[in-house]
UniProtKB/TrEMBL annotation:
The keyword Secreted does not apply. This is CubicO group peptidase, beta-lactamase class C family. InterPro entries: AmpC-like (IPR050491), Beta-lactam-related (IPR001466), Beta-lactam/transpept-like (IPR012338). It comes from Glycomyces sambucus. The keyword Membrane applies. Coiled coil: none annotated. It holds the Pfam family Beta-lactamase. Keywords: Membrane, Signal, Transmembrane, Transmembrane helix. SUPFAM superfamilies: beta-lactamase/transpeptidase-like.
Length: 484
């Protein structure tokens, strides 16, 4: 049998089928339903107890989900149009403002800041070598450890802010090391003002928000912010004013926006819808520096996606995009606690977008605060008991060598020592970021109160023991013995 005949016949039939039969389209990518995102967030809000939360999911140019949960401090329902502070998510907006002016030729991205902003002067001569790009990818050498960031919080404008850097220095040669420092983006925002001839707020409104249709957004709280954020103390959410500081019009953390507006921003960042800069400009903003996987206001994840969190004392936020799949996610909350629910929510939403099961939301905050509450109560109880027993303690040690008695005081004084070093310890854990005392009474309120109670209890016991020791030292020997 000639085997070429069936082969030729098969080939002919295949060609005929290809011509006659309609092509079968490739299976379209399945976008999860809005209900899938809503069910997850409804459970997360109920489990975590966050007072107000909003979120948006985009795919390409489309917003596939946007919603709000809970209430704001005025008791009004949170919706996708409720403006909230997004803290350091603002950095990517400031970078966009700079890049717009770069493409217009008003700013030289790789030129020095000092040449384009003469008022930028520091006590360190290396500051003259800092480039605009290094500000945006945080490799400028600016660092909380060598800058008085507490003084900067009293600034009344971006111009005033930059002028206060005159007696500060750099922590490293420009371009050689990465350090997260808000100063980078506030200097960049001032550069936007001088290069454009407009106040930063006006430039953002006219050149960023308006072209993208971001109608709920601003850079000053009195413009759009409907209420207060909050902190959790042993399970109770407390509405509070944001810690005083340089926020209005700041380039590092001043943006206030809504989930609906963030949807427009995320789509644009993924190269869809209205574009503020060229594709090359967008790519440059998303590219890592030579020393860190950090772009211009974006952290670059190991899977190629980009994300940036924002944490103030009473608000949390996060943004995420995946240029490969075209998905974008943003989550914002009106409550800031020991754990960041927005990051967990973002991870859950991205898992759903990828067709995966999200991790079940946990009660980490409640469990941590419950444990801290128990510790605080125990410390207070032990303090009372120690004061009550201080006479007996002193009687047993009357006449003993002073150094032995002093050693016995160390355990009760240790909590006070830890409390005194508390802000420095948190600053160290935060990678060198400066966290001053007032901030410890906001997002970390349960931990701060617990440490404070333990320190106060220990000091009370120590004082009571010293007073009893002095009394025992003045008393007759037989009286001391009977007291023991």
């Amino acid at each position: 049998m000639n085997t070429k005949v069936p082969r030729l016949l098969g080939a002919a039939l295949a060609v005929a089928a290809a011509v006659v039969l309609p092509a079968v389209p490739a299976q379209a990518e399945t976008v999860p339903s809005p209900e899938a995102f809503d069910d997850y967030l409804t459970g997360l809000v109920g489990t975590t107890g966050v007072p107000g939360l909003s979120a948006v999911v985009t795919h390409g140019a489309d917003t596939v989900f946007a919603a709000g949960y809970g209430t704001d401090s005025n008791g009004d329902p949170v919706t996708e149009h409720t403006p909230m502070r997004v803290a350091s998510v603002s950095k990517s907006f400031t970078a966009m403002a700079v890049m717009i002016l770069v493409e217009e030729g008003a700013i030289d991205l790789d030129g020095t800041v000092a040449a384009q902003l003469p008022e930028f002067a520091m006590a360190d001569p290396r500051a003259g070598e800092v480039t605009v790009r290094q500000l945006l990818d945080q490799t400028s050498g600016l660092n909380d450890t060598t800058i008085d960031v507490v003084e900067l919080e009293d600034a009344t404008s971006l111009e005033d802010y930059v002028s206060r850097l005159g007696d500060d220095g750099l922590a490293a040669d420009p371009g050689t090391d990465w350090a997260y420092c808000n100063v980078n983006f506030n200097v960049a925002a001032r550069l936007v003002e001088t290069a454009s001839g407009q106040p930063f707020a006006d430039f953002m409104r006219e050149r960023v928000f308006a072209p993208l249709g971001m109608e709920d957004s601003a850079t000053r709280d009195e413009d759009v912010l409907p209420g207060l954020g909050s902190n959790s103390l042993f399970g109770l959410w407390i509405d509070r004013e944001e810690v005083p500081g340089f926020l209005d019009d700041s380039g590092s953390g001043g943006i206030i926006t809504s989930a609906a507006d963030m949807g427009r921003w995320l789509a644009s960042q993924n190269g869809e819808g209205p574009q503020l800069v060229s594709a090359a400009g967008l790519e440059a903003m998303h590219a890592p520096s030579e020393v860190q996987d950090y772009g211009m206001g974006w952290g670059i994840e190991s899977d190629g996606s980009l994300a940036h969190s924002g944490n103030l004392m009473t608000y949390n936020a996060v943004e995420w995009i995946d240029p490969e799949t075209g998905y974008g996610v943003a989550v914002m909350s009106t409550g800031a606690g020991l754990t960041d629910v927005t990051w967990a929510a973002m991870e859950g939403l991205t898992a759903i977008a990828a067709g995966e099961d999200p991790a079940e939301p946990g009660r980490d905050r409640q469990l941590i605060e419950l444990a801290l509450g128990v510790v605080a109560l125990a410390a207070a109880g032990l303090g009372v008991l120690g004061v009550v027993r201080s006479r007996r303690w002193a009687g047993k040690r009357a006449g003993r060598r002073a150094w032995r008695t002093a050693l016995r005081m160390v355990p009760v004084l240790l909590p006070a020592v830890l409390f005194a070093a508390y802000p420095a310890g948190v600053s160290f854990i935060s990678g060198g970021r400066t966290v001053p005392w007032p901030q410890m009474f906001y997002f970390a309120l349960p931990l701060t109160v617990t440490l404070m109670v333990a320190a106060a209890a220990g000091l009370a016991v120590a004082v009571a023991r010293v007073v009893r020791l002095r009394s025992a030292g003045r008393a007759p020997a037989e009286s001391v013995g009977s007291a023991a």
